Amino acid sequence: MGHKCGRHRSGRVIKAAINPQPRAGDPEGDRIATRHGSKVSFYYFYYFLYNNYYFYNKIRPHTAAHTQKDYMEKFTVLKRAIDINMPTHKVWPILADFGNICHGHPAVRKSRVTSVQTSGVGATRHCDFTMMGGSAEERVTEWVEGQTVTVEVYELHKMPGLKTVKLRLDIMPKGNATVLTGTMTYSMQNAFFDLVNTLVMKSMNTKLLNGILAGHKMYIETGELVTDKTWLDLSLVSPA
Question: Could you tell me which CATH class the domain 37-239 is placed in?
Answer without folding.
Answer: alpha beta
